[in-house]
Amino acid sequence: MVEKFMDIDYDIDKLPAMPLVVSRMVTLINSPLTSADELAEVISGDPAISARVLKIANSSFYSMARKVNNLSTAIVILGEKTLKNLVMATSLRGMNTTFGATEQTLWEDSMTCALGARFLARSLRIGDPEEAFIAGLFRHIGRVVFNNQDSAAYKKLMTKGGRCGAGLMALEKERFGLNHAELGAAVLNHWKLSELLIHVVLHHHDEDLSEISDPEIRTMTAIINIASEFPLLLDIFGYFSGEVDLATLPGAKFLGLDSERLDGILEEFRDVFDQNRKEFLG
Q: Of all residues in the chain, what percent carry a pLDDT higher than 70?
């Protein structure tokens, strides 16, 4: 596998540090002696994150049998891996140096893809749904970094190059020397996250997934390739052309999914998403 992000001409000092609450929590989760109360203490150190985690945990998307009022209970019910993902999601929102309309759109795009990827993995019974969530969440972290570093320039690129895809990536390469997939992979590598996440972020726009040698990475990349279109189809960007055929995507072709199956999954997800839109994106 060609690690394109390893050859980029980019100042490593410009890469963002992992949010402190996430870094501390990952360290605790990796320790077999950590208790739910210790994890809750770390998360509660950031009131905004803890409030958002509880709000999402209580959404029907996670099918809680009863209302969860404290983080320790949420950890026990949801599990450490799911809670870590929710903390990462809320921390990603806080990575923006400013928070206007563009930043809100980038956040909603990331969160919708993350939730859609988790839903896809569960519906298709392939891959790890929680890995799918975090891969979907981080697939566009390179765009967040570009926007943080030169918001005016990046907004112009998005206006000229469109929502995403080859056009925008070419403009990113021309302006910054790399595209958001390469930068995103470099960020996750800098944070020492898993090889799977790094390569899924790097390859989620690839037209030919057969070039990815690792079957686990290839399958997860296919899931994210499909879920990447969910934000558009759920009107996150404020428009919908009606021209997206999910079955034509590289991920759908690799997984052997037809339009009927994908449209059914999308509609099921749309129902759940619409019921919880405020909890997810507010």
A: 90
